[in-house]
């Protein structure tokens, strides 16, 4: 309980995407875009899921993490150093590796909250 009282929010990252955008990216770039965004372990899950939805969720979650930490997703290592995998009940869990793990350790971050939400109909602003 004391641990929860001492928790501080260091950043919030939010990202909204259109799944159709990823359908187009997969069509245009094929494995290049998939290999850029997904880790090796995510690739295993990807082959058994709705591909564009899975890719869109992973990209969005990783971009949200980058925003919360104030990092750039354009660093080639970023996408490969964090992965979002699901446990047996389907709950997503974020695993950080390499450089990102070091950054979190330096910031003394031990916990983070990850929410993945799929919106089927997202309207364009006027």
Helix content: 40-55%
Multimeric state: single chain
Structural class: mainly alpha
- Rg value: 15 Å
CATH superfamily of the domain at 20-106: 4'-phosphopantetheinyl transferase domain
Mean pLDDT value: 82
N-to-C SSE string, H for helix and E for strand:
HHHHHHEEH
Using the coordinates shown, work out and report the CATH topology of the domain at 20-106: Ribosomal Protein L22, Chain A
Beta-strand share of residues: 5-15%
Distance between the termini: 46 Å
Q: Are there runs of 5+ residues with pLDDT below 50, and where?
A: none
Shape estimate:
globular
Q: Enumerate the strands of the largest sheet in spatial order, edge to edge or round the barrel.
A: 1-2
CATH architecture of the domain at 20-106: Alpha-Beta Complex
CATH domain class of the domain at 20-106: Alpha Beta
* Major pleated sheet: 2 strands, antiparallel
What does it look like?
By secondary structure, this protein is mainly alpha-helical. It has a domain at 20-106: Alpha-Beta Complex (Ribosomal Protein L22, Chain A), CATH 3.90.470. The protein contains 7 helices and 2 strands. It has helices at residues 2-5, 19-29, 31-37, 40-46, 51-69, 76-80, 98-106, and strands spanning 82-86, 92-96. The protein has a two-stranded antiparallel ribbon with strand order 1-2. Strand 1 and strand 2 form a beta hairpin. The termini are far apart. The model has no long low-confidence stretch (mean pLDDT 82). Residues 11-108 form the 4'-phosphopantetheinyl transferase domain.
């Amino acid at each position: 309980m004391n641990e929860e009282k001492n928790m501080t929010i260091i950043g919030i990252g939010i990202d909204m995407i259109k799944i159709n955008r990823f359908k187009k990216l997969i069509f245009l770039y094929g494995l290049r875009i998939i290999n850029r965004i997904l880790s090796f372990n995510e690739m295993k899950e990807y082959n058994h899921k709705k591909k564009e939805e899975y890719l869109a969720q992973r990209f969005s979650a990783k971009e949200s993490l980058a925003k919360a930490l104030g990092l750039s997703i354009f660093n080639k290592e970023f996408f490969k150093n964090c992965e979002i995998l699901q446990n047996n009940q389907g709950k997503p869990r974020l695993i950080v590796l390499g450089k990102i793990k070091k950054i979190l350790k330096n910031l003394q971050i031990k916990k983070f909250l990850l929410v993945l939400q799929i919106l089927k109909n997202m309207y364009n602003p006027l």
